[in-house]
């Protein structure tokens, strides 16, 4: 099994999204005999360039075919999230990004109009998370970011922060009771991740777009120590940050099940899906999902 971000082979590169969607004809129930572990994917995006190529019905089919129990989805703009949530409220957990288009990734924290955008969406729709957003170092103390932390507190939402450790610390300083999902576990070392988890009781980590924690179906020893020390603080994710990444949803789920099988079963189930359910179940009713 190749790693989840390995290059597509030539044949798959030639396939269009429509062609892939047309191939998804195996009934979901047909997978029940194999009983694969459910997957809670906590890091997916469905932005405008994705929905233009992969319609909502086809995207949901991909998610179900992969055996996902839940899919936490954000988009630029938020319209993509709403399209998928309307198509599958039992599967999709809506996340609200501050980005109205892709080009705002590095500028949103300096743009005061972002606040009005977030406030208007929160008034109209229901979410479980604000994010994923990118913020680093002292920028976490800028007024726009401070308001994001306040909005999460006011609406009882998680924050999904693509950040360095400093920015995480600064957000918790603003609100010690904040609940933060650290995107990609900060792309930090397992030793530093463990230190951050010890420091902040309301910090969780997603493992999206990482492969250093496992290879060949075996978990890296340093990461194993982290998973065993904090079995309730990790979730998995694919990170469909480009339209092409949607091809990897099923492959990533299979790869995830392979390395999770190298952990004690109770730990594997927590990381694979139970932590996500435990974290977001209190919010699921608020989104209207069943």
Question: How would you describe this structure in keywords?
Answer:
single chain, about 290 residues, alpha/beta, 8-stranded parallel sheet
Count of β-strands: 10
Main sheet overview: 8 strands, parallel
Order of strands in the sheet with most strands:
1-2-3-4-5-6-7-10
What gap, in angstroms, lies between the N and C termini?
A: 34 Å
Mean pLDDT: 89
CATH architectural label: Alpha-Beta Barrel
Tally of domains:
1
Given helix and strand content, the structural type is: alpha/beta
Percent of sequence in beta strands: 15-25%
Q: SSE string, helix = H, strand = E?
A: HHEHHEHEHEHEHEHEEEHEHH
Number of helices: 12
Pick out the low-confidence regions: 1-33
Model description:
The chain is of the alpha/beta class and 290 residues long. The protein has one domain: Alpha-Beta Barrel (TIM Barrel). The protein is built from twelve helices and ten strands. The strands form two sheets. The chain has an eight-stranded parallel sheet, with helices on both faces. Strands 8-9 form a two-stranded antiparallel sheet. Helix 4 crosses helix 5, helix 6 (113-124) packs parallel to helix 7 (143-154) and helix 9 packs parallel to helix 10 (221-229). The two termini are 34 Å apart. The model is unreliable at 1-33 (pLDDT under 50).
